[in-house]
Design a protein that fits this description.
By secondary structure, this protein is an alpha/beta fold. Helices cover 29% and strands 28% of the residues. Helix 4 crosses helix 5 and helix 4 packs across helix 10.
Length: 334
């Protein structure tokens, strides 16, 4: 079978591998579509903090079951999405119902080889029924679930919610915050992305320029934001996001970046601010996403902006990264 491996930063290859076989409790998935996200771009650029090379990338997966191992209760031919966060089930986080933060977590495409390949064997616990979705929608469930989880992590109450970063995760967070009855404002340094969220998604947006602090103060009558969700994956942006938090408000970090993150303590302390991390997603987030797609509440046809053949990725990925301001979600297909 074919697989796309990142051998080292800035070096992708199409390689041939043996087709895996499902073990006990596993399903063999014929991977049809794979979404690309910031994680994959960070891996390519050598900026992901949890990864060793070489690595087969890909964790936003949609496909169909073609074989089952002993002891499974799934169905061959079933269209599925994949929960790529493989948890141990017994650590402190798993015992507390937070497998997304498992101490021993293995995320497909990060800690272990992922799904940018024609066939992938996964535990049946990672398989999510996606029969009601299109094949491309199945590959979009995971990134939307990350946004749904971030929206759920945001403390309730208050009038103003800000999402910093209009990439896929930031947009997904804003869409689910809106479904929660909030009125999110999305900011990004790229004007094209702000135009996209305004014109195509009906979200309020602002450009992150030198006048941003004044713009946000005017937007909130000087109060700033009860909740700020930073989805940039940039340490500098995360630090700046604290200044957008209202006194008594919260900063939710859903992006991840290498290095140390620090804030000016007086700025943090005087707000009595709450700092929250949002990592991955839970089963209920995946379920919410599927129901929202089925109902038409999430416009996947608008979010899916680009398609590509998986075999073209080694040549096309640098171009996609250069043109990120005009791209929201790329879906690669085998």
């Amino acid at each position: 079978m074919r697989a796309i491996v990142c051998r080292e930063p800035f070096h992708l290859d199409v390689i041939a591998r043996d087709k895996p076989q499902p073990g006990p409790g596993e399903a063999l998935i014929h991977v049809r579509n794979v979404g690309l996200c910031g994680t994959d771009f960070h891996i390519f650029a050598g900026k992901h903090p949890f990864l060793d090379y070489p690595r087969v990338i890909g964790h936003e997966l949609g496909g169909e079951i073609v074989a089952l191992g002993e002891g499974t209760s799934l169905r061959i031919g079933q269209q599925v999405a994949i929960n790529p966060y493989l948890a141990c089930g017994h650590c402190v986080a798993c015992r507390r119902g937070k497998p997304n933060a498992c101490v021993n977590i293995r995320v497909l495409g990060v800690h272990v080889d992922g799904g940018m390949c024609e066939f992938l064997a996964v535990p049946q616990t990672a398989v999510i029924d996606a029969e009601a979705l299109s094949p491309v929608q199945a590959a979009m469930v995971e990134f939307l679930a990350v946004g749904a989880h971030a929206a759920a992590r945001a403390p309730k109450g208050g009038d103003h919610l800000l999402v910093v970063g209009a990439g896929p995760i930031g947009v997904a967070t804003a869409l689910f915050a809106k479904l929660d009855g909030r009125k999110p404002l999305v900011v990004d340094r790229l004007p094209a992305r702000v135009t996209f969220v305004r014109d195509r998604l009906g979200l309020d947006g602002a450009v992150a320029d030198d006048e941003l602090d004044r713009t946000l103060a005017d937007w909130t009558n000087g109060d700033m934001f009860d909740v700020v969700v930073d989805a940039t994956g940039s340490l500098a942006a995360m630090r700046r996001s604290l200044s957008f938090v209202a006194h008594g408000g919260a900063l939710v970090l859903v992006g991840v970046a290498q290095g140390e993150l620090s804030f000016e303590d007086p700025e943090f302390h005087k707000r009595e601010a709450t700092l929250i991390a949002s990592r991955n997603a839970l089963a209920e987030d995946f379920s919410r996403v599927i129901e929202a797609i089925k109902s038409g509440a999430i416009p996947t046809d608008i979010l899916h902006t680009h398609s590509i053949a998986a075999d073209e990725l080694p040549q096309r990925l640098p171009e996609l990264i250069r043109n990120a301001d005009s791209i929201l979600k790329v879906v690669a297909s085998f």
